[in-house]
Amino acid sequence: MSSSEERLFFALWPDDEVRAGIAAWADGSAGRQVAVESYHMTAAFAGPVCADVRRALEAKAASVSGEAFVCVLDEIVWLGAGDIEALAPSCPPPALLGLADRLQRLVAAATGHVARYRYHPHVTLARPGAGDRGWSSRPPEPVRWAVADYVLCRSRTDRPGSYDVLAGWPLS
Questions:
Q1: Domain coverage including residue 75
Q2: Contacts with 60 (C-beta within 8 Å, 6 or more apart), sequence order
Q3: CA 85 to CA 105: how far, in whole Å?
Q4: pTM across the whole model
């Protein structure tokens, strides 16, 4: 990535109440926990892009339509080689999957890069080193997330695991 490029992605960005619910699930994770203020659900990853591509993404994002929806985060999943612990919906809402698909197509058109993975909506809780959760009785209550918008984010190169929200768009 050159110094003139930014690492961008479209995401769902939770409010403080949803963040607190997610944090209850992360409590006790054995790995390197993600900071509460960094919780998000990536919808489409653009990767390192130049300023012209960022402007194209922002301009085209305004035309992406979708309905507001509720996403219930209710299960722990293990991603990658099994070392990334995440909170996910056991039944992803069709509106979420549709929004992610539209944003991934937008990213592909703007960057020429097509996602090589099947979309699995999740919020990362902990990175390598995570072990079994081991709740004493039962997991925390499911997190009900009323999603009314999506955002374009930039990964911070000076603080890995930190993000800046650059712009946002409402869902109907």
A1: 6-155
A2: 106, 109, 110
A3: 27
A4: 0.91
Total domain count for the chain?
A: 1
Inside any domain, residue 160: no
What are the distances in angstroms from CA 159 to CA 5, 48, 51, 155? Answer: 16, 16, 21, 8
CATH code at 127?
3.90.1140.10
Q: What is the pLDDT of residues 22-61, one digit of tens each?
A: 999 988 777 788 999 999 999 999 999 999 999 999 999 9
Contact status, residue 110 vs residue 60, Cβ threshold 8 Å: yes
Radius of gyration of the chain (CA): 16
- Using CA atoms, how far apart are residues 91 and 51, in angstroms rounded to an integer? 37
